[in-house]
Recover the amino acids of this structure.
């Protein structure tokens, strides 16, 4: 298990969560902005909890990155299953966490203090005392809060932003343009571009490019297919263009990224 505590600012990588082995819970100490997960958009609000399963990706878009404050606890899938097994009589809890990739809960303000104490106690158990029993109890309590206050995303599949994100996530491997996106979601290109940028802080084409880079990271970290195949699968027109854009976006060439972060290299 590992933790990242009180990291401030935007997550350092677009769609940062690429691990195939660890789940996480995010606790938001500050509010403002959105968390994008696949075709769903969740609000960043103080006191919010968000569970994201291993192997899934998310993109945080805080309104004020300079004061954005959130903390993450990471646990392995095995550890999560061990904790859920302790709740063998709680069918709702088990069903919720075994069948969902993301769970978002907005904790009532009256419970903020209690949740923060539990969260801090979980961090202390790992950070200082390495007391796994205390950590397990605290993590289980956080799962209970997520169960009790879990809510849907703030948009629905008919919303233009949701449909746009969904369209890009399904189509990034193809050579799509702004006209293709607007036609795919049946919206005026100019209206859609303005609304998308206002809501998410990035343009549609920036989101498309970053989605392609995120997909490439997944392939590089987990698969042994060639760089040229990855470029094609991620919608880049050529291997050289892919390598150029990838290095500009991440600071690594595709080969260096694979050598550093690839599962086979790190196993």
């Amino acid at each position: 298990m590992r933790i990242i505590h009180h990291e401030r600012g935007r997550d350092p990588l677009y769609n940062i969560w690429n691990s195939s082995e660890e789940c996480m819970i995010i606790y938001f100490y500050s509010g403002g902005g959105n968390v994008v997960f696949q075709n769903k958009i969740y609000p960043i609000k103080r006191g919010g909890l968000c569970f994201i399963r291993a192997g899934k990706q998310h993109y945080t878009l805080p309104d004020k990155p300079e004061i954005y404050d959130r903390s993450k606890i990471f646990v392995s899938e095995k550890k999560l299953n061990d904790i859920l097994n302790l709740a063998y009589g709680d069918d709702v809890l088990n069903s919720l966490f075994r069948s969902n990739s993301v769970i978002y809960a907005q904790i009532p303000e009256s419970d903020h203090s209690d949740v923060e104490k539990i969260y801090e106690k979980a961090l202390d158990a790992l950070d200082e005392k390495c007391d796994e029993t205390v950590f397990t109890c605290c993590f289980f309590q956080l799962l209970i809060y997520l169960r009790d206050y879990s809510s849907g995303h703030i948009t629905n599949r008919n919303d233009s932003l949701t449909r746009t994100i969904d369209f890009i996530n399904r189509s990034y491997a193809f050579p799509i343009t702004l006209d293709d996106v607007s036609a795919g979601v049946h919206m005026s290109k100019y209206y859609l571009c303005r609304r998308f940028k206002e809501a998410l802080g990035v343009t549609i084409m920036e989101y498309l490019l970053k989605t392609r880079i995120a997909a490439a990271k997944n392939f590089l970290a987990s698969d042994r297919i060639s760089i040229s195949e990855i470029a094609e699968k991620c919608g880049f027109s050529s291997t050289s263009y892919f390598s150029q854009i990838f290095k500009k976006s991440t600071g690594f060439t595709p080969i260096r990224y694979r050598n550093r972060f690839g599962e086979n290299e790190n196993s």
Confidence is low (pLDDT under 50) at residues 13-18. Strands lie at 2-8, 22-28, 33-37, 40-43, 48-52, 59-62, 69-76, 102-106, 150-151. The chain is about 50% helix and 20% strand.
